[in-house]
Design brief:
Layout: H1 5-8, H2 14-20, H3 25-34, H4 39-46, E1 52-58, H5 63-79, E2 82-88, H6 93-97, E3 110-114, E4 120-125, H7 131-146, H8 165-181, H9 183-202, E5 211-214
Parallel strand pairs: 1-2, 4-5
Antiparallel strand pairs: 1-3, 3-4
Helix pairs in contact: 3-5, 3-8, 4-9, 5-9, 7-8
């Protein structure tokens, strides 16, 4: 899927995206302020011969986006070599789906990296693979805090039996707070994962691009 530079620049800038957020704006800014770009990735991105373009497909209610998108923004700030434009998934559904395999339609966030000629380099989908076991373990701890006898296999999205709206609201609040608390640690994991896929993509033959990073599903 190709995108022209004109289409790319129709997206929101990083600050425009933050300003229009209706969910998690305060937490997003706190995470952005806390993230520290690892030295290796700062050096790699800062020394690129030409800046890269990054199209971000996301929604502000998404938990993975709350961890990953500020990390990407901080990487751009610290290296001054990434031009970011954000596209709200729900307003650009068809475009967003073009960058996802069909069985993952709807997944956010998606970061699509292009070179100066708008040739696609790589796609980073959802979050760093290393984050999945970390978050799964922490979410179970948070569930136990809220309701000590909860079954670890329970579905908190079930309505109405088992879990009410207040339970889910408390769980969401705790997860958001955890993302803020662990912002520096998790942000570094995400930035390192992004750096790995971009580095690999830039070293890959044009005919074999884009390469994929982030989480994968069967």
């Amino acid at each position: 899927m190709s995108m022209t530079i004109e289409e790319f620049r129709l997206g929101l800038t990083s600050e425009q995206y933050i300003e229009q957020m209706r969910t998690n704006q305060d937490a997003f800014r706190k995470i952005l302020d806390s993230v520290v770009t690892p030295l290796e990735e700062q050096t790699f991105f800062s020394t690129l011969s030409k800046p890269l373009h990054v199209a971000v497909f996301t929604e502000d209610w998404c938990g993975d986006s709350l961890t990953c998108t500020p990390a990407l923004f901080k990487l751009a700030i610290d290296t001054n070599n990434l031009e970011i434009r954000v596209f709200l998934r729900d307003h650009n559904t068809e475009l967003a789906h073009n960058y996802l395999p069909e069985h993952r339609w709807g997944t956010v966030p998606v970061f699509v990296f292009f070179d100066q000629g708008m040739r696609e380099i790589c796609r980073f989908i959802e979050t760093a693979p290393e984050m999945a076991p970390i978050m799964d373990a922490l979410w179970q701890e948070l569930l136990q805090e809220i309701q000590p006898n909860v079954d670890e296999n329970s579905d908190i999205s079930a309505e109405p039996e088992g879990f009410g709206d207040r339970f889910k609201e408390m769980f969401s609040e705790k997860r958001t707070a955890a993302r803020v608390t662990h912002a520096q640690e998790w942000g570094q994991i995400v930035i390192t994962s992004i750096g790995q896929v971009v580095h690999y993509g830039l070293g890959t033959n044009l005919t074999q691009r884009p390469v994929y990073g982030g989480t994968t599903f069967p």
